[in-house]
Specification:
The chain is an alpha+beta fold and 152 residues long. It has two domains: 28 residues; 117 residues. It has two helices and eight strands. It has an eight-stranded antiparallel beta barrel with strand order 1-2-3-4-5-6-7-8. Strand 5 and strand 6 form a beta hairpin. The radius of gyration is 19 Å and the shape is globular. It starts with a helix and ends in an 11-residue tail after the last strand.
Length: 152
């Protein structure tokens, strides 16, 4: 095989790999916007395991990077001091779905959401202490009005 032919094949393979990688990252859950967050089964045991009194009613997926956990998750003003640090809430696309992460003073809660006809739905995937039942969460597209003026 001639060197020119070899380099042409290498270039073709590199271009194909780059396109495949771009397609994989383009596929996934939502990338930005406002959502209402509905938690079906939050109770005292979840609050005790995580140290979080609950989850906010509204969130916005912000494309800004938030450390190793993904992107910043914007919450209502009343919730901004709930977490132990400024990166307490984040999100990332994973395997065609969305992972929300909330860092509480006593534990982390990660929620895996998948697209549904009405928005996104899923369960907590973090094993919580004491065999606490996973939290069921639903997200639906919303206006950002719930994120203004300290509304929760």
């Amino acid at each position: 095989m001639s060197p020119f032919r070899f380099l042409s094949r290498v270039a073709l393979l590199a271009a194909t790999a780059a396109c495949a990688a771009a397609q994989r990252t383009a596929v996934g859950g939502p990338t930005a916007g406002c959502y209402s967050l509905m938690v079906a089964d939050w109770d005292r045991t979840v609050a005790a395991a995580t140290g979080l009194p609950g989850l906010p009613n509204y969130v916005a997926l912000d494309p800004a990077a938030s450390g190793p956990r993904g992107h910043r998750l914007t919450v209502p003003a009343a919730w901004q001091s709930v977490g132990p640090n400024p990166e307490w809430a984040s999100w990332r696309n994973e395997n065609g779905g969305l992972i929300l992460t909330f860092l509480g003073p006593r534990g982390t809660l990660e929620i895996a959401l998948r697209p549904t006809p009405d928005g996104l739905a899923g369960d907590g995937i973090t094993p919580l202490q004491g065999g606490v039942t996973p939290v069921r969460v639903m997200m639906a597209t919303s206006s950002c009005v719930g994120l203004r003026g300290g509304a929760a």
